[in-house]
Amino acid sequence: MKTLLQQHRYALGITLRRFLAQPFSSLSNLLVIALALAIPLLGASVLQSVQPVAREVSIQPELTLFLKIDIAPAERTGLADRIKTEHADLIESVRVVPREAALAELKAHPAWSNALAALPDNPLPDAIVATLRDADDIASQADLLARQWGQWPGVERVQLDSAWVQRLEALLRFGRIGLGLLALGVALVVLATVFNTVRMQALSQREEISVARLLGATESFVRRPFLYQGALTCTLAALMAIVLSALALRPLNRALFDLARSYDAEFILRLPPAGWLLTAILAIALLGALSARWSVTRSTHF
């Protein structure tokens, strides 16, 4: 066990000396990998920050029927009962919003109170809000019901209130798939960069490796410094990518703060949690070690 630890310490020391012997080349490789890793990291930050917004809003579509101004209260109640009766299997709940209640709710909002106070009468119509049950084809069912109810007498217009939430969810799914493909492309960039770096290092030490083998060095003893080189390169690059991403989020958040404040909202882009980042660093380090092993195996058969 002591001998194995000494061998690993020796391999790590060789790796560090190689980094210091070629500082410009080492720093260039680190920057290339770090910039490549920062792109999906920023994408993950955006997705992670947007997802709570989608979770806070119900994705159950609500169909709002805006009724004609001159509709009688009995007709309004009849429409609500008709929805419950004819579509009981699709409807979660139905509630009637009288025009007086809608006006009172708007007047309670400071942004609308002054404007509504100047109006001579109530311009709002009665409304019926129907919440649909969860289903696999809920979007198509909502569209079908909206077209059907829009033709009923006494109905002025039907609005699908949660359609934008569904579009947001679809956009997030698209973003996750795109981020996965981007991460795959970045992984290939990391593989290629580490592979070529280790290959050039192995070829430049060709004679040293040959002498070591003549003296009885094993394959693992020859490969170990290169494995450390690949893992250490990717680990340092991942840490640099986190720092670069954190710096890039500062101007983005300043710009988003002004935009969100205009909508009386708060929205901040944050890096993924520490556990997620640690897992990513370990995965990238493993990827670098595997790439280095592949490269040194192909480059030291001479």
Automatic annotation (TrEMBL):
Gene Ontology terms: cellular component: cell division site; plasma membrane
Family: Belongs to the ABC-4 integral membrane protein family. FtsX subfamily.
Keyword set includes Ribonucleoprotein: no
Localization (cell): Cell inner membrane; Cell membrane
Main location: membrane
InterPro entries, per the entry: ABC3_permease_C (IPR003838), FtsX (IPR004513), FtsX_ECD (IPR040690)
Pfam families, A to Z: FtsX, FtsX_ECD
Transmembrane segments: 27-47, 177-198, 226-249, 274-296
Top-level taxon of origin: Bacteria
All residue ranges annotated as the FtsX extracellular domain in the record: 62-158
Source organism (scientific name): Corticimicrobacter populi
ABC3 transporter permease C-terminal domain boundaries: 181-298
Membrane topology qualifier: Multi-pass membrane protein
Annotated GO biological process: cell division
Function field: Part of the ABC transporter FtsEX involved in cellular division.
Keywords: Cell cycle, Cell division, Cell inner membrane, Cell membrane, Membrane, Transmembrane, Transmembrane helix
Protein name: Cell division protein FtsX
